[in-house]
């Protein structure tokens, strides 16, 4: 069986090209996501816990704003690139202009209501203004990368993404060392986002995909696709950002800094899970589509092995990161390394979620993914509201781990309901 698959791959130019591009994009994303990980020890030694906490709140706010600024249209731009019945340049230009108009409108909203937003986010009024612009600029960068990938400009994609990562790495080291506070971190992020968002617009214009063209029909087409996904996206941001805002509210920015530092450290397991998902989904879809009993048994065995692999990686990561904290983190952080266990376990459950959720996508019953995500986001918010006042950042870590476990369990149950598989393996 595997010999025949290898032979097909060997003789199929399209498959070989797909595999080559997939590996390339996965490696580039891993490098990009590794930048914050390798910067972490340097940053923690040069800024206070409170300053790092403010930076973490800035990132959480930036992330939370993105679905409101872009209206989730990045997915529409990706999906409709392959439609033959639209003028994609006019479509892309119309959607991009809509996003720019939206960023300007929300910028003025943020400027007028900066005091109220400061109370909600824990950021100063100055940072409220910067975070809207930074979020908007990072959306432009993301849209540029989507286009480069769709038009198969692998080299351009690689150069642009790596230049962005290297620039952020270098500038953050320089400005953090110079300022020794949150301003250096935020300013470096803002400057890099500004430069590369302008570069994205210039490159997209030069490639012929951006013109000053606006057609309302394309707004309607993009929004018809993107708006139904807004609740799912917002629930994801509630999941990933509410903990930091609530820690700041109940305890303070210093504790946000400690919490975010260990969450960032443990995210190395999450990065591996995301990279695995890129390879797992196409393999799974290909084999599920065969609809053969023996193949289904093979898929189930693979699923169990992958879950076991994530568990092994989790145990190794916990031991390795415990040692890493002693060597690379400031002494004042060492007492909090118990957080590693909950965070790494949480990312393990995220990896298990990546194993089972694609079964639901294969069945095309994606509404269940959104419903479960919203349900778990509400639970996550509730857990944080109850746990943080009682147990502090330890409570937030419990909430993160428990929420990923719930997300995995509910998706596993739903996956088996919409696409039954022989999860109980009987030896033959």
Task: Fill in the keyword field for this structure.
428 residues, mainly alpha, 2 domains, disordered N terminus
Describe this structure in words.
The protein is mainly alpha-helical. It has two domains: 37-229, no CATH class; 251-418, no CATH class. The protein has helices at 2-11, 13-46, 49-70, 73-79, 88-112, 114-121, 125-150, 154-179, 182-206, 216-226, 230-250, 253-288, 293-328, 339-363, 367-391, 393-418. The chain is globular and about 60 Å long.
Number of strands: 0
Helix run count:
16
Biggest sheet layout:
none
Taken together, the total number of domains comes to: 2
Low-confidence stretches: 1-15
Q: What form results from the Cα inertia axes?
A: globular
| Rg of Cα set | 22 Å
Structural class: mainly alpha
Strand content: under 5%
- Helices and strands, in order, run as HHHHHHHHHHHHHHHH
How far do the termini sit from each other? 19 Å
Care to give the gist of this entry?
This protein has helices at about 1-10, 15-45, 50-70, 75-80, 90-110, 115-120, 125-150, 155-180, 180-205, 215-225, 230-250, 255-290, 295-330, 340-365, 365-390, 395-420. It is an all-alpha fold. It folds into 2 domains: about 35-230, no CATH class; about 250-420, no CATH class.
């Amino acid at each position: 069986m595997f010999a025949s698959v290898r032979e097909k791959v060997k003789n199929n130019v399209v498959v070989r090209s797909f595999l080559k591009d997939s590996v390339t994009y996965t490696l580039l994303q891993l490098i990009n996501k590794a930048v914050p990980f390798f910067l972490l020890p340097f940053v923690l030694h040069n800024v206070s816990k409170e300053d790092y906490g403010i930076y973490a709140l800035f990132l959480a706010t930036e992330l939370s704003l993105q679905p409101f600024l872009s209206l989730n249209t990045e997915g529409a731009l990706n999906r409709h690139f392959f439609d033959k019945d639209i003028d994609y340049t006019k479509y892309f230009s119309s959607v991009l202009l809509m996003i720019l108009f939206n960023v300007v409108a929300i910028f003025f909203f943020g400027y007028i209501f900066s005091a109220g937003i400061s109370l909600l986010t824990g950021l100063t009024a100055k940072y409220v203004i910067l975070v809207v612009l930074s979020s908007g600029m990072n959306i432009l960068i993301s849209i540029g990368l989507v286009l480069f990938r769709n038009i198969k400009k692998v080299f351009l994609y690689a150069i642009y993404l790596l230049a962005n990562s290297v620039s952020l790495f270098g500038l953050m080291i320089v400005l953090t060392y110079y300022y020794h506070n949150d301003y250096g971190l935020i300013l470096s992020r803002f400057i890099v986002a500004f430069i590369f968002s302008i570069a994205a617009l210039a490159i997209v214009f030069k490639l012929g995909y951006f013109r000053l063209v606006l057609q309302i029909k394309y707004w309607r087409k993009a929004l018809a696709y993107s708006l139904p996904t807004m609740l799912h996206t917002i629930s994801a941001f509630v999941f990933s950002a509410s903990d930091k805002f609530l820690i700041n509210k109940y305890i303070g920015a210093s504790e946000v800094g400690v919490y975010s530092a260990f969450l960032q450290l443990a995210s190395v397991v999450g990065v591996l899970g995301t990279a695995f998902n890129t390879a797992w989904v196409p393999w799974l879809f290909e084999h599920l589509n065969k609809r053969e009993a023996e193949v289904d048994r093979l898929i189930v065995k693979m699923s169990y092995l992958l879950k076991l692999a994530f568990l092994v990686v989790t145990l190794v990561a916990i031991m390795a990161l415990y040692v890493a904290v002693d060597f690379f983190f400031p002494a004042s952080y060492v007492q909090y390394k118990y957080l590693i266990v909950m965070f790494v376990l949480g990312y393990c459950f995220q990896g298990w979620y990546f194993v089972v959720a694609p079964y639901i996508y294969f069945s095309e019953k994606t509404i269940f993914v959104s419903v479960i995500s919203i349900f778990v986001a509400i639970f996550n918010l509730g857990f944080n509201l109850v746990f943080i006042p009682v147990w502090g950042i330890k409570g937030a870590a419990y909430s993160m781990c428990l929420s990923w476990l719930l997300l995995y369990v509910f998706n596993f149950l739903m996956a088996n309901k919409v696409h039954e598989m022989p999860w109980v393996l009987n030896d033959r």
